[in-house]
């Protein structure tokens, strides 16, 4: 019998790639989102457009016992959206409401396996002040002190999913994503993440010019290529380990280093100009010891390999956009 999957947030970057992966494995897939994917036709068998904050709509789309449910839907964006403070109420209310609705509907339909995408943003700010030695080991989450309301909502929702495991015998799985990037993601408009923003800025720059980078550029991060993210996600949901567990790369780089890598990939004569802007924490890097121990797997692709593919795609998209002007 054909297996079935529900992907909430299927119109987004990670959701779009996940649908493609599940279809390649022979699943019947229903995608759900507020919008269709911006950069590719969906491969889902059924795609429901609607608002997961609406309980009635959620009950309509969770109308059967899916073998696997992936809950990726959230109100989110890059640093310019999450860390300014201007969107805090929306971020917390919208994402929490989605999680409450989706999880309860799955419980009432007796669906067991639900994946929840949390974020490294839930780690305590005080463990991420040293850009060279951030601590993102899973059990360092408490005492809790995320640096943003986005992180606080993620922490609440992690506990929500694991409480349903304990109280209702569900088999929810929780992953903490660390900066996922790749082709077919948002690359302009203010909600794009750092790798996409760097690629766009470099693609638009001319030799002899410069690109702007927020802060002093010495803040550190790690970035995970989308294919690795999807592999870790499906492995976790099908495992006996509930999490929370990091799904991220442990290859740390400064933001200025990321900019310089993209400039080198593009083979352009462009300099980096640091300006004031929202930063998030000083340092963040995935700790992959737990995922290696529990799943026997960890991401292996280098950042450079992923950035080469991402830059090629964004440079092409930027050229298309300019030609349409």
UniProtKB/TrEMBL annotation:
Keywords for the protein's UniProt record, in alphabetical order: NAD
**Which InterPro entries does this one have?**
Epimerase_deHydtase (IPR001509), NAD(P)-bd_dom_sf (IPR036291)
Entry keyword annotation includes NAD = yes
> One Pfam family, short name please?
Epimerase
Q: Which SUPFAM superfamilies match?
A: NAD(P)-binding Rossmann-fold domains
Q: Which residues form the NAD-dependent epimerase/dehydratase domain?
A: 5-248
Quote the protein name from its UniProt record: NAD-dependent dehydratase
* Record organism: Blastomonas marina
